[in-house]
Amino acid sequence: MTDGQHSIIYRINLRDEILFVNDIWNQVVSAHSDSSLLEQNILGRAIWEFINDNLTRDFYKEIIQSVRRNKPARFNFRCDSPSTRRLMEMDITRQTNEQVQFESKIIRAEKRPFQRMLDSGALRSDKIIISCSWCKKVNIEKDIWLEIEDAVSAMGIFENAKLPNISHGICKECYKTCIRKLDEEREAL
């Protein structure tokens, strides 16, 4: 993918425990003011502790099994901040000792009006909304996913003093796309 200088890299062992993160990981986490994800707080923990959605977890398990059989995976996803949309690319590859490496880099970034819903410092309620891990659309009701700007308006989120927490899942469209791409890569090998 790249030389790793501008990529976020982390690795897991055979027990799916995070055993390495690079300096860029810590820089990104620090910039988002989320100390719970700093290196010292995640090393030795299973990657599954950080993926709450069952469909997303199952999808990653399938990818990791495939990678361990020496079939690398590559896909695009979004990783947005309050004022920037980022299209990212992730390569998942097998390393020595059956380790699996995840390497992500920014393909494109575009500025947008500040989205308070994505501000990690905002006051949060106990309510949880689901955002797709790949396209970042928000599930507002069964099978209806909207961009964050539209979802905030449709759900009347700012009518309350506290914003809901954001958890991640995968919308049906992204799931279909990811499975199709994974199947194409398997066929190509």
Sum this structure up briefly.
This protein has one domain: Beta-Lactamase (2-Layer Sandwich). The radius of gyration is 17 Å and the shape is globular. Helices cover 28% and strands 32% of the residues.
CATH superfamily: PAS domain
Main sheet overview: 5 strands, antiparallel
Share of helix among residues? 25-40%
The total tally of domains equals 1
CATH architecture: 2-Layer Sandwich
Tally of DSSP helical segments: 5
Rg, please? 17 Å
Number of strands: 9
Mean pLDDT across the residues is 87
Shape: globular
What structural class is derived from the secondary structure elements? alpha+beta
- Contiguous low-pLDDT stretches (5 residues minimum) are none
CATH class: Alpha Beta
The N- and C-terminal alpha carbons lie at a distance of: 18 Å
Give an account of the 3D structure.
The chain is α+β, with helices and mostly antiparallel strands and 189 residues long. The chain has a single domain (8-188), classed as PAS domain (Beta-Lactamase). It has helices at 23-31, 39-42, 54-68, 148-155, 172-188, and strands spanning 8-12, 18-21, 73-78, 84-94, 100-111, 124-132, 138-141, 144-146, 163-169. The longest helix has 17 residues, at 172-188. The model has no long low-confidence stretch (mean pLDDT 87).
